[in-house]
Design a protein that fits this description.
It is built from five helices and six strands, in the order αβαββββαααβ. By secondary structure, it is α/β, with parallel strands linked by helices. Strand 1 (51-59), helix 2 and strand 2 form a beta-alpha-beta unit. Helix 2 (64-77) crosses helix 4. The longest helix is centred in the N-terminal third of the chain and has 36 residues, at 5-40.
């Protein structure tokens, strides 16, 4: 190789080494910048967990199937609150008992740790009203829904005013939205229960 080409070769080799070194040093810096940039981006706010309310139907003899169906209806149609059966010996937020009178319940919304009462009265059944609709309706009171009487069968909270032929036990969209709103922000945001006793006689 002629001597005049050696300096060119040396310059090219030095340039290649310099470029490689610069790239190697720049890579961690840009990765580090990218990591710190992603670390500084705030994460999206987490949705509040569903509020869990326990119910005790150990004194609701003869109504167990209706209570289970009413609970299933609410759990299938709202997300912000879930009803679960209380373990034996534990305190429940919703105490359900069978009585001989008209169905009645404490108006909620009930908070975890507090307590409301639901009475499932056989007088309504004797008059021809549907047991599952009664149970779901009274649970609706516990979740904060007042009566909407008179009203159509499509409104769960229309209760006895819909007539004995009505067996609808599913809350409509408005009723679902009101319960979702009551429990939307988790436990801290739930307003105190109203505390009134609502009797569901015709």
């Amino acid at each position: 190789m002629p001597l005049c080409t050696w300096p060119k070769a040396g310059v090219i080799a030095a340039a290649v080494v310099l470029a490689a070194t610069t790239a190697a040093n720049a890579a961690p810096a840009s990765a580090s910048a990218s990591t710190s940039a992603s670390a500084s981006v705030p994460s999206a706010p987490r949705a509040a967990a569903a509020v869990t309310l326990r119910y005790d139907d150990s004194r609701a003899g003869g109504w167990e199937a209706a209570v289970a169906a009413g609970v299933a209806s609410w759990n299938a149609n709202v997300d912000n609150v879930k009803l679960v059966e209380a373990a034996p010996g534990t305190r429940a937020e919703i105490v359900i008992v069978a009585t001989t009178g008209w169905p009645q319940a404490t108006l909620g919304p009930v908070r975890p740790g507090r307590q409301v009462r639901v009475e499932l009265g056989s007088q309504a059944v004797a008059q021809g009203y549907d047991k599952t609709r009664i149970a779901a309706h009274e649970l609706g009171h516990s979740l904060g829904l007042p009566d909407t009487k008179p009203g159509p069968c499509s409104q769960l909270m229309s209760g006895s005013s819909a007539g004995t032929a009505c067996a609808n036990a599913v809350p409509n969209a408005t009723e679902q939205a009101r319960v979702e709103s009551a429990y939307a922000g988790g436990v801290a945001s739930i307003a105190p229960a109203d505390g009134r006793i609502l009797v569901d006689a015709p």
